[in-house]
């Protein structure tokens, strides 16, 4: 059996193994089928037969299909085995045969009926063999049978549903039987039938038995509603309009009648049923087959539901987004749905502009705004410009309250990327005064408008930025002092997109931005810090564009950044953060040596934040910079300033006094790189090399390797392990890489860079 398995798994060509010989081997193997109680031989036989049929299907499909019914019958009989391993193997074999031998060729057959002949008749025989597993003698293996039926529906349901309807009826009857233990497997099998055949075929075979006139509240088939909801796709949208919409309306009316009669429980049940019907709509809007012909019959009902039915608003908005993103593939479909933008967008605008309670809460407003953004993608530009003009008028109206202004600005943010250049110019003149607004929320959203326009890939937006570049530069620089903290994130992103389009004649503008960008690397907002680092890198890229050579351009840019090292403590630490990000981004431009020389000077500072930032820079440098270059600066890195002097003497109190607490362990490891203490100093008793208070000497490690190992130690405790002796873990909010996670603390800067280095080399603990 092992030889046969290897032969068929190798998938030999016709010259080595012909289709006829393959079929003869299959016939011979049937004569040697082990007993259901012989565990190991039967498992091997099933594995070989699966590979044999898969290889035969590759060589000659029709010949393979002629042998499949016999194997299906044999594999189904294996489900009667008392061994769970045999059940699992037989189930896997049947599923593999369906996916590898049957499913790839079903599209060639077309519709298959119970009276079909030729290869199609073999599919009927295979299905009858599996359907036999629903009889009571297989009740111990029903879970496996249902898995195989699910695979059969997925592979053949679209073409073979005419002879599968009886099986669907049997499944529904089986689920209704008392204490049926496999409801989840059965629901998945029926769900596979819904996905492949469509809900219309399912409900023709199995009625829903819900019409709003029931005398009892049993609803034995109500379980079909969530099954259809979770699996329906690629079907006719008109079926929802013709079958489910009238049923939902009937159930809603019935619920209202029962509520008026004081029967609140019965009313709640009917209301839940009609709501479950509506939740199917997003599935019907997923790749429907008749969008162009059917949407107009549904549009009015959807608009009414959005404006009048708060309980359905989330569902209907989700359905519209799904229809536009997944259902409108052809231009005709997009045009048909876009034709109703003049009806849907005003409704959505009105709902979004209502106060929170009237609009259904924050979740409803977010859903409505997302739907507006999605619908704008298929709306004609002229219509968008008209809506944008009306929104601008409402924004400047004297009667508008703050909530209205903020809501209108949200709508303008959504519409602006889809407007033409003249409309964008008029909008810019309208919102210019708000850049200096004292209302922080308004100022933030005005910057969001500019951010969306500057970032939009559409030609009108790009043309607007080019034609208004000088105005944008003047306004963005002029609002530097008045920019509120909440507006920093969109403001920095707007500057990022503006800088991307600058040429050499605009270098003065980039130079003027440097101080603000450096300070923003320690903003409270994570988004602002992230955008600050992105802008910093883009400014470096701009200088590279300005020329004349990459090295000269980067030197000019670094000189601007170095100026921050002469400022306040906050400015110095922010500058070191900026230099760290620039080292990471432009390490290939020979800037490392100059950066090391400048930052090492800060190791002697008596200010905690400065030393912490400088040590963080070194950690990043140790993981990035070439070892030969680092070797030239080893003595400088470990001996610079008072803290380094204390390090060389072995004085732990001296180290504590000049560096952050979280760096003590790796700092002790660095001591092993110095041959002798600095003359004139004394080591503290009890802290000798190799003593109990010090990390063991990392034998046979060169200096740079020790440095790198120490860098990896910083903040590298694994979850669940205690921190390094004498250290404290860095706060969670300070653990992101500058420019990537936007952290303001360089103490965790190496974490993003350590991804490929963690665990390499020795871990030196202090």
TrEMBL record:
Annotated region described as Disordered, given as residue ranges: 680-699, 715-744
Pfam families, alphabetically?
RRP12_HEAT
Q: Which SUPFAM superfamilies match?
A: ARM repeat
Q: Which GO terms describe its cellular component?
A: nucleus
Q: Which residues cross the membrane?
A: none
Q: Which InterPro entries match?
A: ARM-like, ARM-type_fold, HEAT_RRP12, RRP12
- The UniProt record lists the RRP12 HEAT domain at 81-354
Family membership noted in the UniProt record: Belongs to the RRP12 family.
Name under which the protein is recorded: Ribosomal RNA processing 12 homolog
Organism whose genome encodes this protein: Chelydra serpentina
């Amino acid at each position: 059996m092992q030889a046969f398995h290897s032969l068929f798994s190798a998938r030999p060509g016709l010259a080595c193994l012909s289709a006829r010989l393959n079929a003869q081997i299959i016939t011979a193997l049937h004569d040697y089928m082990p007993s259901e109680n012989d565990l190991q031989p039967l498992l091997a036989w099933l594995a070989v037969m699966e590979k044999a049929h898969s290889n035969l299907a590759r060589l000659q499909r029709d010949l393979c299909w002629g042998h499949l019914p016999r194997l299906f019958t044999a594999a189904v009989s294996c489900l009667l085995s008392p061994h769970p391993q045999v059940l699992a193997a037989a189930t896997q074999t049947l599923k593999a045969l369906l996916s590898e031998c049957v499913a790839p060729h079903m599209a060639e057959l077309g519709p298959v009926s119970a009276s079909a002949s030729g290869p199609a008749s073999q599919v009927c025989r295979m299905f009858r063999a599996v359907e036999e597993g629903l009889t009571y003698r297989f009740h111990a293996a029903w879970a496996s049978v249902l898995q195989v039926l699910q695979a059969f529906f997925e592979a053949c349901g679209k073409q073979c549903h005419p002879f599968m309807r009886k099986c669907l009826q049997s499944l529904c009857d089986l689920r209704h039987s008392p204490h049926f233990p496999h409801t989840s497997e059965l629901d998945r099998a029926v769900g596979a039938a819904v996905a492949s055949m469509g809900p219309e075929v399912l409900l023709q075979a199995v009625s829903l038995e819900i019409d709003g006139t029931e005398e009892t509240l049993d609803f034995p088939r109500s379980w079909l509603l969530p099954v259809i909801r979770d699996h329906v796709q690629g079907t006719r949208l008109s079926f929802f309009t013709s079958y489910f919409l009238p049923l939902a309306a009937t159930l809603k009316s019935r619920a209202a009648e029962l509520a008026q009669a004081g029967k609140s429980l019965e009313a709640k049940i009917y209301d839940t049923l009609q709501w479950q019907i509506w939740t199917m709509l997003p599935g019907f809007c997923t790749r429907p087959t008749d969008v162009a012909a059917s949407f107009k019959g549904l549009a009015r009902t959807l608009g009414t539901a959005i404006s009048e039915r708060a309980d359905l608003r989330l569902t209907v908005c989700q359905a519209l987004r799904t229809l536009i993103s997944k259902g409108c593939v052809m231009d005709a479909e997009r045009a048909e749905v876009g034709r109703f933008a003049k009806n849907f967008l005003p409704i959505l605008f009105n709902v979004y502009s209502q106060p929170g309670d009237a609009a259904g809460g924050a979740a409803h407003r977010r859903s409505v705004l997302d739907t507006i953004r999605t619908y704008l993608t298929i709306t004609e530009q002229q219509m968008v410009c008209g809506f944008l003009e009306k929104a601008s008028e409402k924004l400047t109206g004297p009667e508008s309250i703050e909530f209205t202004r903020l809501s209108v600005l949200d709508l303008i943010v959504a519409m602006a990327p889809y407007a033409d250049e003249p409309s964008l110019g008029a909008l810019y003149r309208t919102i210019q005064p708000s850049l200096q607004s004292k209302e922080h929320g308004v100022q933030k959203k005005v910057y969001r408008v500019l951010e969306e326009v500057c970032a939009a890939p559409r030609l009108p937006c790009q043309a607007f930025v080019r034609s208004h570049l000088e105005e944008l530069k003047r306004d963005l620089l002029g609002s530097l002092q008045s920019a509120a903290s909440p507006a920093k994130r969109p403001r920095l992103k707007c500057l990022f997109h503006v800088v991307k389009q600058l040429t050499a004649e605009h270098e003065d503008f980039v130079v003027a931005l440097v101080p603000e960008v450096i300070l923003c690397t320690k903003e409270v907002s994570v988004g602002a810090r992230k955008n600050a680092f992105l802008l910093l890198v883009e400014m470096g890229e701009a200088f590279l564009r300005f020329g004349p050579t990459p090295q000269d351009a980067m030197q000019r840019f670094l000189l601007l950044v170095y100026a921050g090292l002469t400022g306040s403590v906050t400015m110095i630490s922010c500058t070191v953060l900026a230099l760290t990000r620039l080292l990471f981004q432009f390490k290939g431009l020979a800037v490392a040596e100059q950066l090391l020389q400048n930052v090492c000077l800060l190791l002697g500072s008596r200010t905690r934040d400065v030393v912490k930032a400088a040590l963080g820079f070194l950690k990043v440098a140790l993981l990035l910079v070439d070892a030969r270059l680092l070797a030239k600066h080893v003595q400088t890195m470990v001996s610079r300033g008072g803290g380094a002097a204390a390090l060389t003497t072995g004085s732990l109190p001296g180290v504590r006094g000049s560096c952050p607490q979280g760096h003590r362990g790796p700092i002790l490891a660095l001591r092993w790189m110095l041959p002798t203490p600095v003359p004139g100093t004394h080591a503290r008793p009890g802290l000798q090399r190799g003593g109990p208070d010090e990390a063991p000497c990392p034998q046979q490690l060169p200096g740079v390797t020790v440095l790198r190992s120490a860098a990896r130690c910083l903040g590298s405790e694994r979850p669940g392990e205690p921190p390094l002796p004498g250290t404290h873990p860095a706060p969670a909010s300070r653990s992101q890489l500058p420019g990537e996670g936007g952290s303001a603390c360089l103490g965790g800067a190496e974490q993003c860079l350590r991804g490929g280095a963690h665990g390499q080399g020795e871990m030196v603990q202090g």
